[in-house]
Q: What sequence folds into this?
């Protein structure tokens, strides 16, 4: 049986590992989302300007923009959950007494995580089905499964973020909505 003295350093080491992994994921999310938005802007504006100036379009712009939109949309789920910037209907939550708020702050992220895991599961099946067909995009002949793999990946990472939010409400006394928000009322 381990003594409490040996458990404490082990727990601190585990917490440090989780913090490093979380910080790395956060950095990756910001990088991917930023570049997705930049790519969408460059492809859209560049294609319009090229069409106005030369009269012809970039044949690849639609495919690259579509990839960037899929990536930004589905990987944005995790970032929105982390920052508490996701769509929420908080009227009932705001009017509720603290014990009900606490219950909702645990229940809602759990249900959302279950939904995201379900969507991620079906997204994985869909992505694998596309992979098996060998389908490619028309202009660049880019493997299409690489374009849609962001769907299950974003759903699974988003589910992890919602489960994290739920766990924070279980272990903390105050109501925890997201990394930067303790409650909807706080700004």
A:
């Amino acid at each position: 049986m381990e003594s409490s003295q040996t458990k404490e350093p082990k727990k601190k080491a585990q917490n440090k590992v989780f913090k490093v992994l979380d910080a790395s994921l956060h950095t990756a999310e910001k990088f991917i989302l930023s570049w997705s938005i930049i790519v969408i802007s460059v492809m859209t504006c560049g294609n319009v300007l090229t069409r106005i100036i030369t009269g012809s379009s970039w044949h690849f712009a639609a495919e690259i923009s579509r990839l960037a939109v899929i990536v930004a949309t589905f990987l944005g789920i995790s970032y929105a959950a982390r920052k508490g910037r996701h769509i929420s209907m908080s009227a009932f939550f705001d009017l509720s007494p603290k014990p009900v708020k606490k219950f909702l702050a645990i229940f809602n992220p759990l249900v959302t995580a279950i939904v995201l895991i379900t969507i991620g599961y079906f997204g994985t099946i869909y992505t694998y089905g596309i992979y098996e067909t060998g389908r490619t995009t028309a202009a660049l002949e880019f493997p299409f499964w690489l374009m849609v793999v962001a769907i299950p990946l974003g759903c699974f990472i988003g589910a992890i973020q919602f489960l994290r939010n739920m766990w924070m409400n279980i272990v903390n006394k105050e109501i925890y909505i997201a990394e930067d928000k303790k409650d909807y009322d706080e700004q």
